[in-house]
Structure prediction request, 317 residues.
Amino acid sequence: MTANSTHEAWPDLPYSAWKDTRDTLHLWTQIVGKIRLALTPWLNHSWHVPLYVTARGLTTSPIPYGEGSFEIEFDFNQHLLEITTSGGDHKQIALQPRTVAEFYEIALAALREAGIRVEINDFPSEIPGAIPFSTDRTHAAYDAEYAERFWRVLIQADRVFKQFRTGFIGKSSPVHFFWGSFDLAVTRFSGRRAPPHPGGVPGLPDTVMRDAYSHEVSSAGFWPGGGGVDYAAFYSYAYPEPNGFRTSVVEPAEAFFSEALGEFLLPYDVVRTASDPDAMLLAFLQSTYEAAARDGKWDRAALECAPGIPGVPKPTR
Prediction:
């Protein structure tokens, strides 16, 4: 591997090469995410818990604490976990091979040193057969190059997802990194209520899933492999799934509907190696959304608009 490989706009991210790092990093992000969860007032669809892509890595954004706030950020440039408080405290933890149990202990100790006391649920979410953070000495891998590659893929996905988001004036989520499922996602809503979600997700109360899917959605995102898919991929699904959705013709031709997962998939490598990755990804996002909206009979005239242009206000009707 060359040093320049991680600085490609759309870097190679073979699942088999960084699976152990991916699994460890997933659990580290859960620890940080659960800190935010424990201290932040509940917001619909669990929008109070995700992380966000930054120019350095992934951040919690400011977390309220007393009359101040603090922020935790994974810096995948310098490979540090940074804890910054509004009172001026600044703690750094090296991102390096270490067990989940050690990371858990060090992160909470750093918060205590900064005057922040928080207790979190010690059990991982959305991971079958998970080990409590405090006793997990199994996951301990950290390959800095692949962690950086992963973040650089997130930068590209975040950028394109945000462009896609501008073509919708109905309710739409921010671009979120959900640490439970370890994916970056953006979601559009029809405005209508959905049937109660059946739940059954490991380590996650059914009430949380029902809140997340309280209304009809078309959701798309990126995950770096795992959960039955041993490669990085973009995905798109609808809840509830309307009749005809899974047999819809979508773009590009390499996209397909996974019967096992119940959603459309587009392998990341197809996008990465395309002559115009942005255009291909936008075509996937738009065509799968249109399939969901068409088959679900959304009021598209009231919900859609032209894509946004920097510096140009949207026209009013």
